[in-house]
Amino acid sequence: MSPVSGLVIVDKPAGWTSHDVVARMRRLAGTRRVGHAGTLDPMATGVLVVGVEKATRLLGHLALTTKVYDGTIRLGETTSTDDAEGEPTGTTPAGHLEDAAVAEAAKAFTGEIMQVPPQVSAIKVNGQRAYKKARQGEEVELKARPVTVHGFDVLAVRRAGETVDVDVSVTCSSGTYIRSLARDLGEALGVGGHLTALRRTAVGPYRLDQARTLEQLAAECEILPMAEAVAAVFPRRDVTEEEARLVAHGGRLRALGLGEGPIGVFGPDGTLLSLVEEKGSQARPLAVFVS
């Protein structure tokens, strides 16, 4: 019996890389055809969307959806990685900062902003990952990139001596580094900062209450069927039998004005057939799941 195609919403544990989770899911799902959408750093926990079998072809599209995080930023201390896994690089007293000043500074990092990724990141520089260059002691110059921060809300401010811990909730676009927000908030306040805790609570429509720990998945490997997964994220288009035959062979459909981005195409019996994208007067296939 071939493995079921679909998504697994994993609650990633601290200390595991996203690749570690994929390796574990390969054993649990009984297939090597497993991938993930949207990397989480080892320190981070929370929602990691994993694709099994044909659902791996959805992952590139799912990675572009909005993400939500809860995190803690320590003001007054900087590190080499902009998070708690790095080496300390400096301290500046931050105990004088008022709650209102911290909240006001966070507002400046909302909307469409230009963000410089952390030195230790997976971005490629001259064909090599930035983190590899950084670990070799090489100073990496990364260019600022446009990201969108829909919300950067201060939930609580806690003081311990000359450092200040700020609990935050962040809603943002794909490609946003919460570590960079921590670093930049600290710089804006003149004291430096780094991320000490991070938990992803949502990736698009997939939320923490749907996620399962690896222990739970070992007991029962819950896989969300592809049709349900696509219907939850993308606009839906139901087609006739004739159109279904066309789609199954990679053919194009007439555009219906369903908007930008992927559209899930379903047959008369509810079977997921493909993802298409409307360009001009045509809906062109992005991925076909039947043949």
From TrEMBL:
Residues 179-222 form the tRNA pseudouridylate synthase B C-terminal domain. Residues 26-178 form the Pseudouridine synthase II N-terminal domain. Gene3D superfamilies: Pseudouridine synthase, PUA domain. Its EC number is 5.4.99.25. It is an enzyme of class 5 (isomerase). Keywords: Isomerase, tRNA processing. InterPro entries: PsdUridine_synth_cat_dom_sf, PsdUridine_synth_N, PUA-like_sf, PUA_sf, tRNA_psdUridine_synth_fam2_C, tRNA_psdUridine_synth_TruB, TruB_C. Residues 234-289 form the tRNA pseudouridine synthase II TruB subfamily 2 C-terminal domain. It catalyses: uridine(55) in tRNA = pseudouridine(55) in tRNA. The active site is at residue 41. Responsible for synthesis of pseudouridine from uracil-55 in the psi GC loop of transfer RNAs. HAMAP family: TruB_bact (MF_01080). Belongs to the pseudouridine synthase TruB family. Type 1 subfamily. NCBIfam families: TruB. This is tRNA pseudouridine synthase B. It comes from Actinocorallia aurantiaca.
